[in-house]
Amino acid sequence: MLMILVCIAALSCAAILDYFFPHELLLVAGICLMIFVPISIALVRTQLRPALELFRAMSGTVLSYQDRDFSFGLHWQRNDELADLVDAHNDLGHVLREQRLDLVQRELLLDSMLQNTPVAMLLVGLRGHVVFGNITARQLLNNGRKLEGLTLEEILQQVSHSLREAMGHGGDGLFTVSASKLPVVEHAADDSDEDEIYHLSRRSFTLNGTEHELFLIRHLTVELRRQEVQTWKKVIRVISHELNNSLAPVASLANSAGALISRGQYERLPEIMRTIEERAQHLESFIHGYARFAKLPTPRLESIHWHSFIGRLQSQLNFQVVGRLPEEPAMLDVAQMEQALLNLLKNALESGSAPSGVTLEVKPMVEGVRIEVSDQGSGMSDTVMSNALVPFYSTKRHGTGLGLALAREIIEAHGGRIMLNNRDGGGLTVSLILPV
Fold this sequence. Notes:
Pfam families: HATPase_c. This is histidine kinase. The chain crosses the membrane at residues 25-44. The chain has 13 helices and twelve strands. The chain has helices at residues 2-20, 25-66, 81-116, 135-142, 152-156, 161-169, 184-188, 221-262, 269-294, 306-314, 334-349, 382-387, 403-413, and strands at residues 120-124, 130-133, 173-177, 196-207, 210-219, 302-304, 320-322, 330-332, 359-365, 368-374, 417-422, 428-435. The strands form two sheets. The protein has a ten-stranded mixed beta sheet, sandwiched between helices. A two-stranded antiparallel sheet has the order 6-8. α1 runs antiparallel to α2 and α8 packs antiparallel against α9 (269-294).
């Protein structure tokens, strides 16, 4: 409307000038331009200023959206096309704001769950700095203090040797921590002096374009004890069933033998006695297998030389010795340690690994000696590894489930500890750490 009025005014002015100066057309045109062009520009700016301010405000809200701040909105009083654009922009901001609030609530819920889970969680960035550590991880690794910002090396310097060794070994694994080296919070939950068993799981993934490694440390002692109790109940039922199956026929045969003797019929007595002997031997063998684990005697330590000891093992099973054996003798219960290593070597040979891939290595350490039995099989899943030390737990069809459990009992009776680790290249390594 203003432009129409300006045009009418320009035409009127031109007519007046042309009336007074009929022969000065260029002069009239120049004067008109000098007067009305600035006026036109000023009027155009006046008309465009609100739209330009709107565009600047819209640009600012877009930058706020990029910073995840969706609290800003726009207002446009006119009822035109720009009003539709402003409404659409405000609707977008409302949707983003609702999504942001929902995401924040989910993050708070997830953070609460992660912080209060009994599994210690430690997220480490590419440069080795801790990005996240929940409450359980703080209690286990840093006496309840904050972990974020510390490097993994700094944390490992103040934890137990077994945990440091497990985290530096690579792959998943089981490890034990002496009760005296546990944090106060952990030790207060259990007044016993038994070593505590933990399961370490580690996973690598990309987060925001950067490689991260997640460590999960789960306390298994209480769960293992609960499973052991349930397992022993099952064992008692099995033993009771086996005793009944063996004693009932023996009692019946003994009664038949007594009746035959009373009648002077001795022809069938040898057969009856052989059957009773077979059942008794079977029962003795059955009970002996369970009693050997349940009543492990105190180790009788004696000095042994590693070359002769390992030589006896190689005469029974096919495996490779890695590295040089220590020249210094060790104080061990030869029979028990031989049984423990035979169980581990048999498991390694039955893992699907070739005999050449089954190895045994003895390493001298400051705190004692380390025996490693490794294979190139398929390793253990998290579920199998979590139950590997439970007596009578086995994934084999005809397995007894006593191999690892018995090895653990023997090693702990010697004052040592056992660790299980999946190898990065496939397979499993069982480490036995024995004191000097």
